[in-house]
C-alpha cells in the first residue's frame, strides 16, 4: 500500500526533528540537549502523591472533564498567579497532555476553508491538525534576535477569512516571553477581525529575570474569545505525565470537550490527583524552580559564550538559542546539528525545523534543564566545535 492511498496530512509528514535528533543522540552515545526534558526525576512529594493514589485511591475512569479537585486547583492557581477568575466546572477541562489540549481546541474551532494565523518558528503539532480540520495556515515569519510581533506582520495575514490565531507564549524554541504591548497588539487584531485565540502557554511558569508571563485571556476584550492551554508536565518538570489544562469561556469549552471525549476521553486519575496537590504548593516552590533553572541557563550560557558561541538571551522555557550567523561557518543550522551530534557527541535542534516557509537557517536550540555535570560535559565536548569549522 502506498502513501497515496492514506491520509496525506499525516502520511507525507517526515519524522519529527525531535525524534530524529534524539535517535541520533542514542546512536552516537551523545548528550541530548535537543529534546526538552529534564534529567532529574521531578519533585518527590508530587510523585509520592501519585503513588499513594495509585495504591489506595480510585483507578477507574474519572470524569471526562477531569477530577473536580484538579479543576478547582487549576482555577485557584490561575486566580492566584494571574488574577484570572475561572468557574472550575464550566471553564476548565483536563486533557492527556498539552498537545491533546491544543488538538481539542483546534478541532473545536477550525472548519474547512478557515484561515489560522501561526507564527514561525511554530511548534510541530499545530499545522497538521489545522490541515486535518480543513483549515489553511497563514504563516508569519518571526526573526532573531528579538522574535517580536509588529503591526505590519499582523496586517499582512489577518482578514475576513481568519478564524483563529495560534499563539505560543513563552515561545518555544526562541525562548521569548512576550511583553504586554505585543499582546495588546495581537488582541486588537483578534477583536477587529472577530478571531478566536488558541494560546499555547505551557511554559507560563518557566520565566526568568524580570520577565513576567501575561496570559492573553487576561487582556481586555479577550476573555470570551481565548482558549488557554497549560501543562503540568512543564510546570513540575514531569514531562511524561501528560496532564494538560484547557481554560475557556463556556461556549468554547463545551465544544473542545466534545472533541476531547473522542480523542482520549479522560486522563489517569492518580496523576490528576497529584497535580492538584502540586498546584496548591506555596509560591516558594515555583520561585525556587525558576531560580534553579535560571542558574542552569546561566551556566550553559557562560560556557557557550566562552567557546565563542553567540548566545541569544533566554527569557523563558528550558531552552536557549545560539545564532551562528556571526561565526562565518560554512554550514546551516541543520548541518551544524548533525555535525556536532556525530563529531562531538552533543545533540541540539536546528530552529529552521520550526519553519515551513522561508526558514531562519542560522539558529540552534539547546536545552539547559539538565544537571550541572551534564552541561559541563557537553561544553567540554563542544570546546572546538566553532574553531574547527571556520572558513
Description:
This protein has about 400 residues and is an alpha/beta fold. About 40% of the residues lie in helices and about 15% in strands. It contains 14 helices and 13 strands. Helix 3 runs antiparallel to helix 11 and helix 4 runs parallel beside helix 11 (about 270-280). It is globular and about 60 Å long. The mean pLDDT is about 95.
Elements, N to C (H/E): HHEHHEHEHEHEHEEHEHHHEEHEEEH
The dominant shape is globular
Estimated radius of gyration: 21 Å
Total number of strands: 13
Overall helicity: 25-40%
Q: How far is it from the N-terminal to the C-terminal residue, by CA? A: 47 Å
Helix- and strand-based class?
alpha/beta
Name the average pLDDT. 96
Instruction: Outline the low-pLDDT stretches.
Output: none
Major beta sheet summary:
7 strands, mixed
* Continuous helix count: 14
Residue share in β-strands: 5-15%
Strand order of the largest sheet: 2-8-7-6-5-3-4
Amino acid at each position: 500500500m502506498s502513501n497515496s492511498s492514506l491520509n496525506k496530512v499525516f502520511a507525507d509528514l517526515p519524522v519529527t526533528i525531535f525524534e530524529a535528533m534524539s535517535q541520533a543522540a542514542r546512536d552516537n552515545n551523545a548528550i541530548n540537549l535537543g529534546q526538552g526534558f529534564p534529567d532529574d526525576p521531578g519533585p518527590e512529594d508530587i510523585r509520592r502523591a501519585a503513588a499513594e493514589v495509585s495504591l489506595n485511591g480510585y483507578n477507574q475512569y474519572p470524569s471526562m472533564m477531569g477530577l473536580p479537585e484538579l479543576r478547582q486547583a487549576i482555577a485557584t492557581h490561575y486566580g492566584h498567579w494571574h488574577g484570572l477568575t475561572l468557574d472550575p466546572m464550566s471553564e476548565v477541562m483536563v486533557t492527556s497532555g498539552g498537545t491533546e489540549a491544543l488538538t481539542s481546541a483546534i478541532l473545536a474551532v477550525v472548519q474547512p476553508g478557515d484561515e489560522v494565523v501561526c507564527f514561525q518558528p511554530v511548534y510541530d503539532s499545530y499545522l497538521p491538525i489545522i490541515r486535518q480540520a480543513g483549515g489553511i495556515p497563514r504563516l508569519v515569519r518571526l526573526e532573531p534576535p528579538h522574535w517580536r510581533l509588529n503591526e505590519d506582520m499582523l496586517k499582512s495575514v489577518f482578514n475576513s477569512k481568519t478564524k483563529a490565531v495560534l499563539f505560543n507564549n513563552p515561545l518555544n524554541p526562541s525562548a521569548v516571553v512576550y511583553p504586554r504591548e505585543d499582546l495588546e497588539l495581537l488582541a486588537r487584531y483578534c477583536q477587529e477581525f472577530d478571531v478566536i485565540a488558541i494560546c499555547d502557554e505551557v511554559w507560563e511558569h518557566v520565566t526568568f529575570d524580570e520577565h513576567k508571563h501575561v496570559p492573553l485571556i487576561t487582556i481586555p476584550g479577550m476573555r470570551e474569545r481565548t482558549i488557554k492551554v497549560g501543562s503540568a508536565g512543564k510546570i513540575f518538570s514531569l514531562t511524561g505525565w501528560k496532564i494538560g489544562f484547557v481554560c475557556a469561556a463556556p461556549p468554547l469549552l463545551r465544544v473542545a470537550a466534545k472533541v476531547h471525549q473522542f480523542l482520549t476521553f479522560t486522563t489517569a486519575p492518580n496523576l490528576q490527583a497529584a497535580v492538584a496537590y502540586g498546584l496548591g504548593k506555596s509560591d516558594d516552590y515555583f520561585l525556587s524552580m525558576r531560580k534553579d533553572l535560571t542558574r542552569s541557563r546561566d551556566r550553559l550560557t557562560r560556557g557557550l559564550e566562552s567557546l565563542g558561541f553567540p548566545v541569544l538571551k533566554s527569557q523563558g522555557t528550558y531552552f536557549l538559542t545560539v545564532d551562528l550567523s556571526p561565526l562565518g561557518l560554512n554550514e546551516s543550522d541543520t548541518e551544524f546539528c548533525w555535525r556536532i551530534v556525530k563529531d562531538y557527541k552533543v545533540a541540539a535542534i536546528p530552529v529552521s525545523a520550526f519553519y515551513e516557509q522561508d526558514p531562519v537557517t542560522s539558529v540552534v536550540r539547546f536545552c539547559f534543564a539538565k544537571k550541572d555535570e551534564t552541561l559541563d560535559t557537553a561544553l567540554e565536548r563542544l570546546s572546538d566545535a566553532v574553531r574547527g569549522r571556520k572558513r
